[in-house]
Specification:
The complex is a heterodimer of chains A (544) and B (423). Chain A has 544 residues and is mainly beta. A four-stranded antiparallel β-sheet of chain A has the order 1-30-29-28, with no helix packed on it. Chain A has a four-stranded antiparallel β-sheet with strand order 2-3-4-5. The radius of gyration of chain A is 22 Å and the shape is globular. With 423 residues, chain B is mainly α. Helices cover 76% and strands 0% of the residues of chain B. Chain B contains 26 helices and no strands. Classes of the chains: A mainly beta (544), B mainly alpha (423). At the A-B interface, loops of A face helix 3, helix 10 and helix 11 of B.
Chain lengths: 544, 423
């Protein structure tokens, strides 16, 4: 009896010394329906397999009413219009969504594709830019819970097929400019009939159409001027789908990476004089390690290897591989997909939305990928919509490599957009997934806490603001304020740090704004949100 | 009515799985082919063809571990077949087993593809001796684009910027990633033979022939596609363009009519025919074709520019300008559109305005002498004699180098000093 007790105690000791690490793959639980987030994307399918039907659409996580929780904006393709859902978490205390489309006047009803968020007029409120197969739209947040459509007044007039977009201050003049990727010159009238290998009608490869050049708009006191040509952005273009803006070469100026579907990607390096130069070929990100142009869809940008520079992950077709481009420090990249084992998948999917996120708060960024086919999946032929695939989560194994964590509990769907954020403000990251011809999914992270965390809200921080967490005896963690990347989607601008089981001693937080201004803050504790307002800080009570 | 499908089904079922797999493989129905190859493997366990083709299929589907298993089995059954070992080396590399990939590639020896995988395996381990193998691969197969790309990246990482730039240039010149075509791959022969009967394959080969500059061969392959499927609209569209460039206008027009009967809503069809019609000065037909292309695709910048040009030839000057401007709006850095608009403005004495457009046409790296000549003319018109001289000298050099004698003479006549200028 005594012996048995000893063994039991020893087991207990072993358990407590090594905290359990939950499988992130089992922790994402869809709560869209029960939380009131009822939305179904309808691409208005016809018999002609028009290409835009299969490409949309996106979603945004934004705090439009500045109440401290993330609201949801979902993009619709055609009648019915986009929907805005207010999160009632603050002050109600419960994750519930209310459809406030009518009150907010955000129900744009074009054949919409994606959304970008940012405070373009500098009034402290998050504005919306909606891309579309057709005219795009800019909504200014009035700051009173309503928006106004300022598209015409803003000078943005683009009726081409635009996809992902991003706000960035490329000229560092203090206001947000706008970059929009454009896809192909498809028109309904010019629809080309395409067929799958069995002879059935299917969606075309984009190479059937011509690529369209992307656009850069400079913000001149709230008016947007098309400066694409003078910025040199027309020098190269492909079938643009994904956009991510970051300082890839570490010179303090924002650059632009564009994932092109079937053509070489572009890496537009800011020349600091209003122009950009495409360095993608020499930088090693135009093509994969085989020299192949792939079907670039979504982009995740972050410093996943904690070495202080921005790395890239780009999603592709199932018959290709998603690619991890690791930054060597000065905007020169190496395709390290194979050593990091990101080509090892149970079943390959066609990746669209993607994001780096430390789902288990262990201090290492994991990867989420929203998958959905663009041509009929052979095994689903005969089904009404044979494009369903499983989304994927890759767990970062302490920076050594990635391992696929099954997401078996989630249904096979035709996923497109993915936006990341702490939707329930509980200290871990959740995922909003937009499905093509299907319901939006709100995947709540129900992980038992594996590590400590810190969330940083940098007030009035332009995209690209870097937030560095310095911990004694540990490498710094580099994150950046951004909402762009993924596919057609916009994520939580707040910066999240997973800290692992041991958060370390007294830590410093360094905020580096694109202007070069730096702030250093002593972290008063972990498992809480810190709001950084230059030059002082406010601390909100934590809700661990 | 159901008799025919039933008979077809019975016929299919009677075919051995390997034959059905080959047919599906040829059609690129890979997921359906895989289980049939597995069945064929079970039926004929000593035949290397089935695990080999299954491995090829897994490689295409990026299932590298499954590819390693199949190709290892094929290699055991046929240890001397070079294609089997080359594909095994690739599968091992992609599965992350770099040491084994290196070993297998070394065994093959001096084959360009083996040298490529050997070089990549060594470099993946941080061993820069891989560069030498990639150089050997490139020199033994100069059109092997993937080898040039890998070498460029390796040289870049080794700090050899000039070497890297040269190899990136080679990669641009030889974008085909495929290793040199092998004549010793009997296992793939049947798949290749089956593809001979697929119109899409013929169109693909035709496009490759066109890229290689062989227009007659390209046209032959497009015709072959039409023999296999007379309703293959893309082959007709390609023939409109090819025959136009070969000066065989009646044949181009015949294919235009044929394509119209299949699907009239294809902007490229109308655009291609517009170019053909314009080339023989059938300006009304050309304008109608470009307009039709623009009705279908309002963003077709080439059609806009060409329609503007036709308007000028018809003497409808004012109508040309908006076409050029619209083309620039659709494609901001479209040099030809900037050139055409600039030229149009020069002709109206609006030199300063023209200069901004011609400056966007004649940019660094542009090799069209006309664009530089236009820039020279506009510069002269604004009184910028030095700028005019520089642009004219460049235009003259480019025209002379490309054998455009008449153009070179015209430049000399307008800018006599430029003809004697040296670099």
């Amino acid at each position: 009896m005594k012996k048995a007790l000893t063994v039991f105690a020893a087991l207990l000791a072993g358990c407590s010394a090594r905290p359990t690490r939950p499988e992130p793959g089992r922790i994402l639980r869809d709560v869209a329906e029960v939380s009131g987030l009822r939305f179904r994307h309808d691409p208005h399918l016809g018999r002609e397999h028009h290409l835009p039907e299969i490409m949309g659409s996106g979603a945004a996580l934004l705090d439009y009413d500045s109440d401290g929780d993330l609201d949801v904006y979902l993009i619709q393709s055609g009648p019915g219009g986009n929907r805005m859902f207010r999160n009632e978490l603050v002050p109600g205390g419960q994750l519930r969504f209310t459809d406030v489309t009518a009150q907010t006047a955000t129900g744009h009803s074009g054949y919409d594709m994606g959304v970008a968020t940012g405070d373009y007029d500098g009034d402290g409120n998050t504005d919306l830019f909606v891309t579309a197969f057709g005219p795009s739209a800019l909504y200014r947040n009035r700051g009173n819970g309503t928006f106004e459509d300022v598209t015409r007044a803003s000078g943005i007039s683009d009726a081409r097929w635009s996809t992902s977009a991003a706000f960035l201050d490329y000229d560092k003049d203090g206001d947000l400019d706008l970059f929009t990727a454009a896809y192909v010159d498809f028109t309904v009238k010019g629809n080309v009939p395409c067929f799958d290998a069995s002879g059935a009608r299917d969606y075309c490869n984009p190479s059937v159409y011509r690529p369209l050049p992307d656009r850069l708009y400079r913000n001149d006191n709230g008016k947007f001027v098309d400066v694409s040509a003078q910025a040199g952005l027309g020098a190269a273009f492909g079938n643009g789908l994904g956009v991510s803006c970051a300082d890839f070469d570490g010179d303090g100026w924002p650059d632009i990476f564009v994932a092109n579907d079937g053509n070489a990607n572009q890496l537009w390096i800011n020349q600091r004089d209003g122009t950009f130069r495409d360095t993608a070929l020499e930088a090693g990100v135009a093509y994969n390690a085989d020299g192949a142009a792939q079907a670039g869809m979504g982009i995740a940008t972050a410093d996943f290897d904690n070495d202080g520079d921005e790395d890239l992950f780009v999603t592709h077709l199932a018959k290709e591989t998603n690619v991890l481009y690791v930054n060597g420090g000065k905007g020169v990249f190496t395709d390290l997909t194979i050593p990091f084992r990101l080509n090892r998948v149970a079943v390959a999917g066609t990746g669209f939305g993607t994001a780096w996120a430390d789902f288990d708060n262990d201090g290492f960024l994991d990867l989420f990928i929203a998958n959905g086919a663009v041509t009929a999946v052979e095994s689903q032929r005969g089904e009404p919509y044979p494009y369903r695939q499983r989304n994927q989560l890759f767990r970062n194994e302490a920076g050594k490599w990635f391992r696929e964590a099954p997401l078996a509990a989630l249904p096979l769907e035709v996923s497109r957009g993915a936006a990341i954020g702490d939707i329930d403000n509980d200290g871990d990251l959740d995922v909003l997934v937009s499905n093509n011809n299907g319901p939006a999914r709100l995947l709540l992270n129900d992980s038992p806490r594996a590590g400590h965390w810190l969330r940083v809200r940098v007030e009035k921080a332009p995209p690209g603001t870097r937030v560095v967490l310095h911990r004694p005896g540990m490498p710094p963690l580099w994150r950046r304020v951004h909402t762009d990347g993924s596919y057609l989607s916009a994520s939580d601008p707040r910066v999240h740090f997973g800290l692992g089981a041991n958060p370390g001693g007294p830590s410093r937080l360094e905020v580096i704004r694109p202007s070069g201004a730096r702030q250093t803050i002593l972290v008063p504790g972990v498992d809480r949100e810190i709001a950084v307002v230059a030059p002082s800080i406010k601390i909100k009570p934590g809700n661990p | 009515m159901p008799i025919l499908p039933l008979l077809l089904m019975v016929g299919c079922a009677r075919q051995p799985p390997g034959q059905r797999a080959l047919a599906l493989h040829a059609k690129e129905e890979l997921e359906a082919a895989a289980p049939l190859y597995r069945a064929a493997r079970e039926q004929e366990p000593n035949r290397a063809q089935w695990p080999y083709l299954l491995g090829v299929l897994h490689l295409t589907l990026k299932q590298s571990h499954a590819a390693v298993e199949s190709l290892s089995a094929a290699s055991r059954l046929d240890p001397v077949a070079v294609p089997v070992r080359l594909r095994l080396a690739r599968a091992l590399f992609e599965s992350g087993d770099i040491d084994a990939a290196e070993r297998v590639a070394r065994q093959v020896g001096a084959d360009p593809e083996a040298l490529y995988w050997l070089g990549r395996a060594l470099l993946a381990r941080g061993d820069r001796s891989g560069i030498a193998y990639l150089k050997q691969a490139c020199s033994s197969a100069p059109a092997f684009g993937a080898a040039h790309y890998a070498l460029a990246v390796a040289l870049r990482d080794a700090g050899d910027a000039a070497g890297a730039a040269a190899e990136f240039a080679q990669f641009r010149a030889h974008p085909s990633l495929d290793p040199p075509v092998r004549s010793d791959d009997p296992y793939m022969e049947e798949v290749t033979r089956l593809r001979e009967n697929m119109p899409l394959e013929q169109v693909r080969r035709g496009v490759q022939a066109e890229l290689a500059g062989n227009l007659e061969e390209s046209a032959r392959l497009q015709r072959k596609a039409l023999e296999l499927d007379p309703n293959f609209a893309q082959a007709h569209i390609n023939l409109v363009s090819l025959y136009g460039r070969l000066g065989r206008v009646p044949e181009a027009e015949r294919h235009y009519r044929a394509a119209l009967a299949i699907n009239a809503n294809q902007p490229e069809l109308h655009h291609n025919f517009g170019v053909v019609a314009a080339s023989v000065k059938r300006l009304d037909d050309a304008a109608a074709a470009f307009r039709r292309a623009l009705e279908i695709n309002p963003y077709h910048a080439d059609a806009m520019v060409n329609l503007g040009q036709v308007f000028e030839w018809q003497g409808r000057w004012p109508e040309a300008e908006p076409q050029y401007r619209e083309a620039i709006r659709a494609r901001p850095n479209f040099r030809l559109a900037h050139f055409q608009l600039g030229r149009w403005l020069v002709a109206r004495g609006r030199h300063r305005e023209a200069l901004s457009h011609l400056g966007q046409a004649a940019v660094e790296g542009e090799s069209n002498a006309l664009f530089w000549f236009g820039l020279a003319t506009a510069s002269a018109g604004t009184g910028d004699r030095a700028g005019a001289f520089r642009a004219a000298a460049r235009a003259h050099r480019l025209a002379a180098a490309s054998g455009q004698r008449e153009l070179a003479e015209a430049i000399s006549a307008q800018f006599p000093a430029a003809a004697g200028a040296t670099r």
